Amino acid sequence: MVSVRLLLLSAAPLLLCGCLGTQGGNVLVLPGEHSHWLNMRVILEELAERNHSVTVLVFTASPSIDYSKPERFGFKVYDVPFEKQDWLAVNDDFIKWWMYESQNASMLEVGLWIRDLMQKMNVLTLNTCKSMFNNEELLESLRQSKFDALLSDPMSPCSDLMADALGLPLIFSLRFSFGMVLERQCAQMPAPSSYVPSPELAYTDQMTFFERVHNFVMYTFLDVLTNVHFLTTMDPLYSEIKGRPTRFCEIMGKADIWLIRTYWDFEYPRPFLPNFKFVGGLHCKPAKPLSEAMEEFVQSSGDDGVVVFSLGSMVKNLTKERGNTIATALGQIPQKVLWRYSGEKPETLAPNTRVYKWIPQNDLLGHPKTKAFITHGGTNGLYEAIYHGVPMVGIPLFADQPVNIMHMKTKGAAVMMDFNKMTSKDLVDGLNSVINDPSYKENMMRLSSLHHDQPMKPLDTAVFWIEFVMRNKGAKHLRVESHNLSWYQYHCLDVAAALLSVVALIIIVSVKTCTFCFRKTKARQKTE
Amino acid sequence: MVSVRLLLLSAAPLLLCGCLGTQGGNVLVLPGEHSHWLNMRVILEELAERNHSVTVLVFTASPSIDYSKPERFGFKVYDVPFEKQDWLAVNDDFIKWWMYESQNASMLEVGLWIRDLMQKMNVLTLNTCKSMFNNEELLESLRQSKFDALLSDPMSPCSDLMADALGLPLIFSLRFSFGMVLERQCAQMPAPSSYVPSPELAYTDQMTFFERVHNFVMYTFLDVLTNVHFLTTMDPLYSEIKGRPTRFCEIMGKADIWLIRTYWDFEYPRPFLPNFKFVGGLHCKPAKPLSEAMEEFVQSSGDDGVVVFSLGSMVKNLTKERGNTIATALGQIPQKVLWRYSGEKPETLAPNTRVYKWIPQNDLLGHPKTKAFITHGGTNGLYEAIYHGVPMVGIPLFADQPVNIMHMKTKGAAVMMDFNKMTSKDLVDGLNSVINDPSYKENMMRLSSLHHDQPMKPLDTAVFWIEFVMRNKGAKHLRVESHNLSWYQYHCLDVAAALLSVVALIIIVSVKTCTFCFRKTKARQKTE
């Protein structure tokens, strides 16, 4: 069995130019999957462009990373005791359940489903971690590679533990974690629940009293839930691998830099820490020309323009009924529609709509004829829409998509659809609104202007901090001291207890003294 | 009486080039005094350089702004009912008391002195504010000027109220406020007292239990003290000027951008907000050549090099005894010394020491022969030392100086002296340490390297955000929603109270129901 396959397919040109290890750094990357990978590979390409050597550590069953394809960076592949299909099956279950069943499920069913999903994911996580850390050949090869830093997506299991094991500074790339638990508990970011809504709730930073109660309860609930998960699953795993009692958050919290894949064009302002760098939209770039056939179709739309439609790379198929509802709606608008969809062609597909297995989404969104973007609301597509200033019709499906679309809706740059309940008329109305009501375009252009009006481009910011970490062997000067405090010390509960004790002592002594003096005086009066 | 004197002495070249009002913006500036002014004028020069029109609003009694001197920006001067001498007298009282008397004062004396000082300063503040807002001619002229933004130092009285009155976006330039009250209460920056030391205490971010108690008590004390000041002095003044009940913090908190005059090379990492931009050392630049005479003196030091010595622009004189103690010490080191000092020449002044009324401090600190910097620890000089990597002997006198030097000491880049207690031997030992123990130089070079290793130069960052505010008529997308919450809402006390009430209600109802059922059962048993 070849447990370590070194595929430095594409590092060859770099080696030829003699730049590796001389001017450039040496980065190990443990990426996330799906859209996370698409975002991270933009960083990796830029790192390679700047003469850094980049090695992506990937497991054989990776559902979305094609390590056989030549790239500007190299791959190191390790075996895991499961197949790509196992991972995809969990994924598909997750998506189908969320898209079609979660709406009508009872609380009990939701709870059981979450438990079931977490168990399945835990199996994959544990197997992936152990496959890395039990593979002495892999570890030795990584040690020999003398990396300068490790860049990872927290979605990649045990990537922080790998940085710890190799003694490397760590850079995370993150949209947000479940309940922002990693940011709040592991990175120590303050998030007052009074105005920082949990990303699981579709609230803005302006909450009513009952929304604030809901938010407070949600944070507490998620804290309990994730801490149980940490205590029962992650801490034992980390302790086992490290060979001493280890907390998951302790290792996660060692990250030098947290690259957050959003910015204040999209996020509600909130407190953060010096090692948080906001790099939302780093993958966006000016549109390139379309293929001749596509350009011809786009131009044929005349003054009405086109609508770009994609539900992302993870949704391959729709039910017949949903597909037809959507296709019927698309047939009723005067625009031409370019729909990325790899499922069965809906029967009601109208002549104005063309279905593609893949579309050059960024180039289409940047085309002057594009009037609107129908999207599931993934962060990558959302930022491409912000970058090019295209108003959106959001049909959120799962994960961060509902909260993403809700952000854009409250900023007046999108209308939001309910995937399961929307009728053809709803979609037509939504499209007509964002296309014909100029406020949507204006609001989107305002966000676009904020996005472009930053001191530095997001990709440059991301690369700067990765290079900084390599140059300086970390960024400890940006890491808050609260990592070394317990939760009760952090919240000054010990200080409050001490001060209250002193006050109580003073009161007791005063009362006792007064009582004693009063009795003495009374006794003396009596004897007199 | 000429109540508004428009001195656009130096804007002439800009007007000639035809750039004003076309490409560039129009900035109104209400600066601070002394070192604050020195720092801010660097920004103003850069703004002028970038074709912006800059008008500095200054009162006739300004102790440190020479508005008769030609500058690249213009001045608008208004009368106040006090003289420069009145301001300087309060200043001198403050400095002398802090330097010579505060050490031996009892708590009562300190308290009375603070009260006395605040009363004197209040008189100046109130008079300055009212002179601006009662001067209709001035206000009308400012209104007519159609500024795009107001840049101010919070030290400048009512500058935020002026921005409000003129409807201008506001940018603050700030080192820190007393107890960080403005940042915490008015700007809503979270500062957990468990690891963010109050700047009044010489603690690091690593505090013992008792230091944390002290810090907690200090924050509470300063909050009470300043809130009493706000309630009794500032709120009534602001309400009177605005003609409706107005809170000081409400107006202060409207600031779009807070330019903080430090960075993480110097500060301990802590949470902050999206509209906080750290621009420490923006005034620093590469050294220019010295005058011929000074260069000759510096070169005459040979391999021993030179020591640069300044206690800042505010300390004009020392007592004879302190002067002689210092001069004696300087005479005992092999280095040559350049001492900025405008007081009486000490009798013990040795031939290796030259006294200057003014020195080109930045150029001297950037000279390769410079081995050490003896400083009071003002932020400007401290950043010049960081910029050029010169280790320091700190003799802090007042204000932020003790905490500044303490920061540098804990980072291993400075030794700290007690101005009143130090002997000549102490100063000689201190100088020998920072010059001969290589760790001081190494630590300072590490800070210097962090300072230079930023995505953008501090001055460019400051100017970017000022220009951003002008381009976008503010920076509301960076302003947290907590400004619209009361303190109990912010801390979720209403939510906690509601949840506790629900829990209490459930318990009471349960207990009552159980008791009722129990009684019923018992009664039934009895009747049976």
TrEMBL record, chains A, B:
Reactions listed under catalytic activity: glucuronate acceptor + UDP-alpha-D-glucuronate = acceptor beta-D-glucuronoside + UDP + H(+)
UniProt cross-references to InterPro entries, sorted A to Z: UDP-glycosyltransferase, UDP_glucos_trans, UDP_glycos_trans_CS
Cellular localisation: Membrane
Swiss-Prot/TrEMBL keywords: Glycosyltransferase, Membrane, Signal, Transferase, Transmembrane, Transmembrane helix
Membrane-spanning residues: 495-518
Membrane topology: Single-pass membrane protein
Organism: Coregonus suidteri
EC number(s) from the headed UniProt entry: 2.4.1.17
Keyword Transmembrane: yes
Name of the protein in question: UDP-glucuronosyltransferase
Entry's family note: Belongs to the UDP-glycosyltransferase family.
Organism ancestry: Eukaryota, Metazoa, Chordata, Craniata, Vertebrata
